[in-house]
Amino acid sequence: MSSASKVVVKVGSSSLTTPQGMIDVDRVDALVDVLAARRRTGTQIVLVSSGAIAAGLGPLGLSARPRDLATQQAAASVGQGVLVARYTSSFARYSLRVGQVLLTADDMMRRAHHANAQRTLARLLELGIVPIVNENDTVATDEIRFGDNDRLAALVTHLIHADALVLLSDVDALYDGPPSRAGSKRLAEIRGPEDLAGVELGKNGAAVGTGGMITKVQAARIATGAGVPVVLTAAAHAAQALAGADVGTYFHPGGRHPGTRLLWLAHATTGRGLLHLDQGAVEAIVGRRKSLLPAGVTAVEGDFAAGDPVDLCGPQGVVVARGLVNFDATEIPGLLGRSTKELASTLGPEYERELIHRDDIVILESHN
Fold first, then answer.
1. Is the model's pTM score more than 0.85?
2. Where is substrate annotated to bind (predicted)?
3. Is 211 labelled as part of a ligand binding site?
4. Is 109 labelled a binding residue?
5. Is 160 annotated as a binding residue?
C-alpha cells in the first residue's frame, strides 16, 4: 500500500453523511486531507464515492432513503451535484481539481463504451485530475444500481490498472462475527477463501447506505483474484491504511490480471437470456476456450438483442459461462443445430459467424 503508484479508494455513504442525509462537511474534508497528502507524494488517486442518494435526502426534505425507484433516482439527481460540489470545494484547498465520472454496467460491457471510459479515466489522471467515480444512479433501472459501489470500485481498479484498492466503511475491519458482539475478533489478514470459513457476513446497519460486509468481501475477491491487494477499514483510518499500517483487514493478492471487460461481464452483468448447450459445446467453451457455434446450442430462452449478455447452460442445467451474443433471441431458433457454412449458403454470408465469439465469453468462477 505504501508504495502503490495508482490507488482506488472507495468510500461509503455512511462515512460521508449525517443520519439525516446531509453531507457532513467535516467528514468530507477529513477524507480529502488524507487523499491530497497522498497525491503530493506523486500517487494517482481515483475516488469511488457513494453518497449521491443520501446527499439528496436533505434537499428533498426526505427523512429516510426512499424505496421506490423514481424517488431514488430523483434523490440521486439532486444529491450527485451536491456531492461533487463539496468535493470540488474541498480538493480546491490543495489546488487540486476533480472530474466527475458516472458509469453504468452497460458502459463496461460494450467494447466502444468500455474503451472510452478507460481512455477518459487515463487522460484525467495524466492531467492531474482526481476522478470522482459513481454509478449513474439517475438512469440505472435495475434497483438503482448494478450491484454496489464496492464492486464498482473493484472493477474500476482493473479498468485503470491500479496497484491497490482501499475500501473505507463505518466498520474498522472484517470480524469473525458481529463487531458489537463480545468476543468477535478482527481478521487482520485474508489469504484465501479458507480464511473466511465460518465468518458471519452481514449488513453494517447504516440507514443511508446499501452495502455491507458481503459486498466488500465480494469486491475484495474480484480485486485480489486478479493480483490487486485490498485493505478494508474505517474512513477514520484512511491515512494509516494508505501508509501500509496494520489497520483493518488486508486481503492478499493472487492470480493475474484478466481482461478488464471480461471482469465486468462476469461481475457487473446478469444474463438477459439463456442458451442451452450440448456437452460437446460445453467442453469446447470451458475446456478449449472456443467460440460458441449454432450447432452446439439445443434451446434458447429469454428476450434479448444482439450484444446483450446471455448465460450458457450445460445439459445438467448448470450455468458455465456468460457471453455477448451476436444475434437477437428471435433469430436464434432458426440457427440451432446447423453449421455456419450451411447457414451462410441458405441465409446469407452475414450468418457465417459465431453465436458468441470466444473473446466475448467469460467462464464463470466455479468452472475456472
1. no
2. 50, 137, 149
3. yes
4. no
5. no
